[in-house]
Structures are given as structure tokens and as C-alpha cells.
């Protein structure tokens, strides 16, 4: 059994991953949260594994943007989105190979 990630390296920064986000009745659609100033990704613990993997990658994408020169922007053009996915996500997976194994297993 492959363990869920407890940390992820993004642009040389180590982000801790905590599975302690509890459902807030006012924000029922909040499954994850990225706190870049604290190098922390928080996820709800009560999601199915395939959803957990996708929410994790959503939050990782927030962290990648926050650690990049694009931090603070709210809108991106198509080429910038493709760069985020094509380069930065691939680099994150290369730096965190155990996360790639976990994602492939969980997203099945």
C-alpha cells in the first residue's frame, strides 16, 4: 500500500500536506486549501481516494503558481496555463516520484 504524501517539493520549497481540513457547513465545497506563506497544503480526510488525488493536484497547482513568477495573478492566458501544466507539474512529479506512484494508484 502506497501512503498518501505527507509533503511535496515545489520549486525547492517543501510543503507539508495535512489531512485535517474539516467540512465547514458554510463552505461545503471546500475540499482543499493551500497556504503558501506557511508552505502548507490542507485536505479533507473524508474524500474517496480518486477525488483526493485530484484535489491534491489542484492544491499543488495553486502552490506552483504561488511559488512562480505568476504569483498574485488571477487570470492566465492559454499559453501560461499550458506552461504550468506542461513544465511545472512535470517538474514537480520528477522531484516527487513517490507522489506520482500514489497518484496513479489513487486516480484509478
* Morphology call: globular
**What is the H-and-E element order?**
EEEEHHH
Distance linking N and C termini: 14 Å
What's the total number of strands? Answer: 4
Low-confidence stretches: none
What is the overall number of helices?
3
Helicity range: 40-55%
Quickly count the domains: 1
The assigned structural class equals alpha+beta
Give, in spatial order, the strands making up the sheet with the most strands.
Answer: 1-2-4-3
Oligomer: single chain
- Rounded average pLDDT: 89
Beta-strand share of residues = 15-25%
Report the sheet with the most strands, covering strand number, pairing sense and barrel closure. Answer: 4 strands, mixed
Radius of gyration over C-alpha positions, nearest whole angstrom: 14 Å
Folded structure, characterized:
The structure is a single chain. This protein has 108 residues and is an alpha+beta fold. It has one domain (7-106). Helices cover 44% and strands 20% of the residues. Strands 1-2-4-3 form a 4-stranded mixed beta sheet. Strand 1 (7-10) and strand 2 form a beta hairpin. Helix 1 (49-67) crosses helix 2. The longest helix is centred in the middle third of the chain and has 19 residues, at 49-67. The mean pLDDT is 89.
Amino acid at each position: 500500500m502506497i501512503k498518501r504524501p505527507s509533503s511535496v517539493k515545489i520549486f525547492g520549497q517543501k510543503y507539508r500536506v495535512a489531512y485535517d481540513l474539516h467540512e465547514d457547513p458554510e463552505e461545503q465545497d471546500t475540499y482543499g486549501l493551500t497556504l503558501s506563506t506557511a508552505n502548507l497544503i490542507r485536505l479533507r480526510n473524508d474524500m474517496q481516494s480518486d477525488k483526493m488525488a485530484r484535489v491534491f493536484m489542484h492544491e499543488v497547482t495553486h502552490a506552483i503558481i504561488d511559488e512562480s513568477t505568476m504569483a498574485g495573478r488571477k487570470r492566465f492566458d492559454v499559453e501560461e496555463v499550458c506552461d504550468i501544466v506542461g513544465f511545472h507539474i512535470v517538474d514537480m512529479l520528477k522531484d516527487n516520484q513517490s507522489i506520482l506512484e500514489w497518484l496513479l494508484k489513487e486516480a484509478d
